[in-house]
Design the sequence.
């Protein structure tokens, strides 16, 4: 399928670029259902073919301007960037921010290529309580929580830590929790063509806890169910029960 | 008013670095709105430097939101201990230990500008005066950048001492540092605990033990 990308950077780094502000590439929307129903040679989608939008060299090149931005921030807040505790803070903060967004440097294919195995297993596989740390794209403030993933394999299983790596790639970006949930589900679908996938994320948003409404204990829960997890209530219920215990 | 502006424009080394100076400057500072454009521009350049596309829908207003959020998280600079405490000190004839525990605290670490949060436990032995405590915490923790958890603990203890002249003060902070959890060593469950004991809570082991026991359960 053609993708009318104006340039690598405009292919929004989180894989959903073509849907937003780029009507010419509307053909490449990620699917709502897994591709297994359509046979083996399904066309590939952004998360699979995603290009790396950032490299280590980019990081090095951008570090000084990021540090300068943080110095401005410190000054604008009324602090004194020359005092001892703050001298290196712009550099540390810039490096930390690059680390928190390192998902832009990685692609799914890097991580998964050799960890897909043929197994004759068709019972649910669940990996739960995967710690997740991300940044909300609206306030640049962390949101942290747990991800629970379940899937019904269709002749192929994924190395278990790869599920956690998929979470890492997508969560280490500027994110919206709903989008993060969906991206994880779609990535697993594209990699394995399973019978179904379910992803649930429970997170605490610091932007709600530390500012704004300041609700300490509230959690946000989002979920994406694809394939048989969506169609069949019993499967979905089994998944939700198993992640609860 | 003009005097404070001159203070701000001097090179950092020449401005007194005492807490009083900084507080005064913060309080007399012009409306925060004056700083907002600079903050927004800084955040915009951060988004670009990270390889993101600031023109996409989700990020269009992010520089403004992030700038305002940061101002909120550091608004302790605009407040002073005296303002907060002056109307919350009461005369009470009570000389048994007063403990306020599990006060939620959120702040930013001055080394990485990443949140750390946890709980503050305070105990003091009043001599005739008691105080509304949660407001006091509010100022110090929102002085974000002052912090280093050790210093925060000590500042809270000193502020209470100055305001009330109690027989003793103890402050304990247990916090999780996102800079350790989200990056670096990435230790999920570790907590940092710091404490400051002053006066009779430092001298007398039994008093200190009573405090530590009472905050435990």
Sequence:
């Amino acid at each position: 399928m053609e993708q009318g990308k104006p340039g690598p950077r405009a292919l929004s780094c989180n894989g959903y670029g073509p849907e937003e502000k780029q009507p010419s590439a509307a053909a490449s929307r990620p699917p709502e259902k897994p591709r297994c129903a359509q046979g083996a040679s399904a066309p590939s989608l952004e998360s699979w073919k995603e290009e790396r939008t950032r490299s280590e060299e980019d990081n090095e090149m951008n570090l000084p301007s990021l540090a300068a931005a943080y110095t401005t921030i410190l000054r604008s807040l009324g602090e004194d960037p020359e005092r001892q505790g703050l001298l290196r803070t712009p550099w540390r903060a810039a490096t930390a921010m690059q680390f928190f967004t390192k998902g832009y440097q990685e692609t799914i294919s890097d991580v998964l290529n050799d960890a897909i195995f043929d197994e004759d297993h068709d019972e649910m596989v669940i990996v739960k309580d995967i710690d997740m740390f991300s940044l909300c794209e609206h306030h640049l403030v962390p949101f942290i929580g747990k991800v629970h993933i379940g899937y019904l394999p269709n002749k192929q299983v994924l190395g278990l830590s790869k599920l956690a790596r998929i979470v890492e790639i997508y969560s280490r970006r500027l994110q919206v929790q709903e989008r993060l949930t969906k991206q994880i589900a779609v990535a697993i679908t594209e990699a394995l063509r399973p019978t179904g996938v379910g992803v649930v994320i429970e997170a605490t948003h610091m932007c709600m806890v530390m500012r704004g409404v300041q609700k300490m204990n509230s959690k946000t829960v989002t979920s994406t169910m694809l394939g048989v997890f969506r169609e069949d209530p019993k499967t979905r219920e089994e998944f939700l029960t198993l992640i609860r215990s | 008013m003009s005097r404070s502006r001159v203070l701000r424009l001097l090179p950092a080394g020449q401005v007194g670095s005492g807490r009083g100076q900084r507080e005064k400057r913060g309080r007399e500072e012009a409306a925060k709105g004056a700083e907002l454009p600079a903050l927004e521009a800084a955040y915009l350049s951060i988004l670009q430097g990270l390889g993101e596309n600031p023109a996409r829908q989700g990020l269009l207003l992010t520089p403004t939101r992030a700038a305002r959020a940061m101002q909120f998280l550091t608004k302790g600079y605009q407040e002073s201990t005296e303002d907060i405490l002056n109307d919350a000190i009461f005369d009470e004839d009570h000389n048994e230990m007063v403990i306020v525990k599990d006060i939620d605290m959120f702040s930013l670490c001055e080394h990485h500008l990443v949140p750390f949060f946890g709980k503050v436990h305070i105990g003091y032995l009043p001599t005739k005066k008691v105080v509304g405590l949660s407001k006091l915490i509010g100022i110090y923790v929102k002085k974000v950048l002052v912090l280093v958890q050790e210093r925060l603990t000590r500042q809270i203890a000193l502020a209470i001492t100055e305001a009330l002249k109690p027989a003793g003060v103890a402050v304990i902070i247990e916090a999780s540092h996102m800079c350790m959890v989200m990056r670096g060593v990435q230790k999920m469950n570790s907590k940092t605990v710091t404490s400051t004991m002053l006066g009779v809570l430092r001298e007398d082991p039994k008093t200190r033990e009573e405090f530590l026991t009472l905050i435990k359960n």
Q: What stands out?
A: Chain B is about 45% helix and 20% strand. Chain B has a mean pLDDT of 77. Chain B touches chain A through 57 residues (CB under 8 Å).
